[in-house]
């Protein structure tokens, strides 16, 4: 318990007394005033050149009147402010040591983080951005090994089956594996020759039947005009008539 009591020369809340029990001395601590729980326990260490006392009077005089004028009797407030003031000179005496230990460690990782962004000058405070770019850079080399498969993996795979489909129909145009492509192309090829044959057939059929009667018609009239021409020929008729007349004459004559 005694190791928890601080020194307070002016207004301690406790007092240390020597009590002899069974002939043996004991240091016993007694409260000399009421104070709340968890308050600083203080007593007068006695007259001595305690190092903190050399600093305490000057420090206590400044904060007590200005900040807590109504707490004149509250020694607790003075001691609470005292350590705060003591913490400031400690960092100044040892700027990189205990007092600034927390700050120094916080700055250290920040300094470590800055060199990383310095490689990426615009990512100074954006450690997250730097890490995001790093995987992007890693992703780029991977595509660089396969430059055509990088971002167009889908396109490449789409092209691959297309390329496979093209040679397959060419190699096995009528096989089962290329049923889709082969049959699509095959009917196209069949359809092309069919129309190419049909136009000739259909047109020839029509033309042949048309020509045939024409030819027949031509032949018929070609024969008839000759007959009709003979009959219609007035000269021939005259010859015939003359011959009949001659025959009649001959019959009549003898
Ligand atoms: C018995 S211990 C008191 C408890 C100690 N302050 C602690 O936190 O454990 C005695 C030591 O406390 C410190 N101390 C006691 N009274 C003080 C005061 N008024 N101002 C600054 N340090 C004090 C000194 O370092 C002293 O050696």
From TrEMBL:
Domain SET intervals: 1-46
Biased composition (Polar residues): 71-85, 97-111, 123-137, 149-163, 175-189, 201-225
Biological process according to GO: regulation of DNA damage response, signal transduction by p53 class mediator; regulation of transcription by RNA polymerase II
Gene Ontology MF: a single term: histone H4K20 methyltransferase activity
One Gene Ontology cellular component annotation held by this UniProt entry: nucleus
Region described as Disordered: spans on this chain: 48-254
Domain of life assignment: Eukaryota
Alphabetical list of Gene3D superfamilies matching this protein: SET domain
PROSITE patterns per UniProt: SET
Entries under PANTHER family matching the protein: N-LYSINE METHYLTRANSFERASE KMT5A (PTHR46167)
Protein name, entry field: Protein TsetseEP-like isoform X3
Species whose genome carries this gene: Parambassis ranga
Gene that encodes it: LOC114439499
């Amino acid at each position: 318990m005694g190791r928890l009591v601080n020194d307070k020369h002016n207004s301690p809340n406790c007092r240390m007394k020597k009590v002899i029990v069974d002939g043996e001395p004991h240091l016993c601590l007694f409260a000399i005033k009421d104070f709340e729980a968890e308050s600083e326990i203080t007593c007068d260490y006695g007259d001595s050149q305690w190092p903190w006392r050399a600093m305490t009077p000057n420090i206590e005089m400044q904060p007590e009147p200005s900040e807590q004028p109504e707490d004149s009797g509250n020694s607790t407030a003075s001691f609470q402010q005292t350590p705060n003031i003591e913490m400031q000179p400690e960092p100044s005496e040892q700027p990189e040591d205990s007092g600034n230990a927390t700050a120094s460690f916080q700055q250290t990782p920040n300094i470590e983080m800055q060199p990383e962004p310095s490689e990426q000058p615009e990512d100074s405070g954006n450690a997250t951005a730097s890490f995001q770019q790093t995987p992007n850079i890693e992703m780029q080399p991977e595509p660089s090994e396969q430059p055509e498969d990088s971002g167009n993996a889908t396109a490449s795979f789409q092209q691959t089956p297309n390329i496979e489909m093209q040679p397959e129909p060419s190699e096995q145009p009528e096989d089962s594996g290329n049923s889709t492509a082969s049959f699509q192309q095959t009917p196209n090829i069949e359809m092309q020759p069919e129309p190419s044959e049909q136009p000739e057939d259909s047109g020839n059929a029509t033309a042949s039947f048309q020509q045939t009667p024409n030819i027949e018609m031509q032949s018929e009239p070609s024969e008839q005009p000759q007959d009709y021409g003979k009959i219609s020929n007035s000269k021939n008729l005259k010859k015939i008539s003359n011959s009949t007349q001659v025959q009649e004459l001959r019959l009549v004559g003898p």
